[in-house]
Every structure is written in structure tokens, then in C-alpha cells.
Design a protein that fits this description.
Blueprint: H1 2-6, H2 10-33, E1 39-41, H3 48-61, E2 63-68, H4 73-87, E3 90-95, E4 98-102
Parallel strand pairs: 1-2
Antiparallel strand pairs: 2-4, 3-4
Length: about 120
């Protein structure tokens, strides 16, 4: 019973919410582990075709991996940040040249969605 009383404290409630968010991120990373990159950004940089394809992939699959093979680390981070803001997605994980993006879709097809298929 003391655990329930402690959760009423604002600091503890914030920590529980943060833990829940960490649990979700951990689950998303586990799902994304087996995925292959769908979209690849190459030497030409960010084009409208890449943004269109990423938007379609996020609508269909909700959780996707992208590969960014552009210049140095700062340029790569800038391209990833631009993709995240332009598509309205969330960055789940970034390791080297690969980033995992998430955008929930209301009418996602369960056969295509990486979040609704069994692991």
C-alpha cells in the first residue's frame, strides 16, 4: 500500500510516466531491430522523392528504418532532423547511418503495420 501513496507525489508520478515512455521506446527499438531500412538518402541529399517515399512508408508501416549516407556526422544529423520535422515523425533511435522513425496512423493496415504485426 505505501507504493500507491508514494505515486501520488508529483516527482514520483513524473518518474512513473517517464518509465512508461522508456518502456515504449524499448519496445519500439525491439520491433525495429529486425527491420531493414526502407528509405535510403544518398549523395544527392534530401529530395522531394525521398520525402514522398518516407511519408508513404510511415503511413503504411508506422515504424520504419532509414539509412542516411551523407557526408559527416553533422550533415547526417541535420538531414535526419529535417526528415523528422518535415514528416511529423518521432525519432526512436539513431545508430551510425541508420535512424528509426515512428509516426502513428489512425487507419493503418494491420498487414503492413510494423506495430500491429506480432514480433
Amino acid at each position: 500500500m505505501p507504493a500507491r501513496i508514494a505515486s501520488l507525489h508529483p516527482q514520483t508520478a513524473a518518474n512513473e510516466n517517464h518509465t512508461l515512455e522508456n518502456r515504449l521506446l524499448k519496445q519500439y527499438r525491439a520491433i525495429a531491430h529486425k527491420l531493414h531500412p526502407i528509405v535510403t538518402v544518398g549523395g544527392q541529399g534530401l529530395t522531394s522523392g525521398i520525402q514522398t517515399e518516407l511519408d508513404r512508408a510511415l503511413t503504411d508501416h508506422e515504424l520504419v528504418k532509414i539509412k542516411v549516407s551523407v557526408g559527416d556526422r553533422e550533415a547526417r544529423d541535420a538531414v535526419i532532423e529535417q526528415l523528422v520535422t518535415s514528416c511529423g515523425a518521432e525519432l526512436v533511435q539513431k545508430i551510425g547511418h541508420t535512424a528509426t522513425l515512428l509516426r502513428h496512423s489512425e487507419n493503418a493496415d494491420p498487414r503492413k503495420s510494423n506495430l500491429q504485426r506480432p514480433i
